[in-house]
Structures are given as structure tokens and as C-alpha cells.
Write a structure and sequence with these properties.
This protein is mostly beta strands. The chain is 0% helix and 54% strand. The strands form two sheets. Strands 2, 4, 5, 6, 9, 10 and 11 form a seven-stranded mixed β-sheet that branches. The protein has a four-stranded antiparallel β-sheet with strand order 1-3-8-7, with no helix packed on it.
Length: 117
């Protein structure tokens, strides 16, 4: 079992910045992908960004150039630096953990990000 604990988030004005962090604990594979997804009210959960243990990244088109994902393999943490936030970025953000052998990812409890003036 893998447990994910998220921190950061909150309320920010348009154009502002936030940083989300997630720490994984439990049975952590050396080969894994961690990332962030988000779900806005009335919408499906969608990819924001992922990063492999080899530090290969993948971003949703909507956040490219504004968000940066990074990780610390020694600490089993992943961070999401969000700049230029827009009201459309308002959602609950979920940390994820997955490996090539798992049938489904583990999820954090979710953390609210609200972009509003």
C-alpha cells in the first residue's frame, strides 16, 4: 500500500502562484510515476502533469509554460509549482502514484485550489 499526503493549495488571485507538495509513504517502487490530476465541479478528473522516477515529464496543454512539476526521489515527494494561475485552474488537485505493474494508481485525498479575485 502507498499513502499520499498533499499540502499547499488555497485561495489565490488571478495571475498569482501556488505550490503543491505530495509525500508518498509505504511500499515505494524505485520505478514509478507520480503526478497531479485535478477535478473541477461537474467535470471529470483530468491530467495536470506527471513525472517519472527518471524525471521524464508530461504536461496537459492547458498548463504548459505555467506549471512545473518536480520530484525528490530520496524523499518520495513531488511538487507542482503553479504560476500565472487562472480562474479555470480552480479545482481539487489530486496527487497520484503509479508503477508499470499496478492495475490502478494510488490517490491522495485531494486539495482545493481556488483562483478568484
Amino acid at each position: 500500500q502507498v499513502q499520499l499526503v498533499e499540502s499547499g493549495g488555497g485561495l489565490v488571485q488571478p495571475g498569482g502562484s501556488l505550490r503543491l507538495s505530495c509525500t508518498a509513504s509505504g511500499w515505494i517502487s524505485s520505478i514509478n510515476t507520480m503526478g497531479w490530476y485535478r477535478q473541477a465541479p461537474g467535470k471529470e478528473r483530468e491530467l495536470v502533469a506527471t513525472i517519472t522516477s527518471g524525471r521524464t515529464t508530461n504536461y496537459a496543454d492547458s498548463v504548459k509554460g505555467r506549471f512545473t512539476i518536480s520530484r525528490d526521489n530520496a524523499k518520495n515527494t513531488v511538487s507542482l509549482h503553479m504560476n500565472g494561475l487562472e480562474p479555470e485552474d480552480t479545482a481539487v488537485y489530486y496527487c497520484s502514484y503509479n508503477t508499470p505493474t499496478r492495475t490502478r494508481p494510488s490517490w491522495g485525498q485531494g486539495i482545493q485550489v481556488t483562483v478568484s479575485s
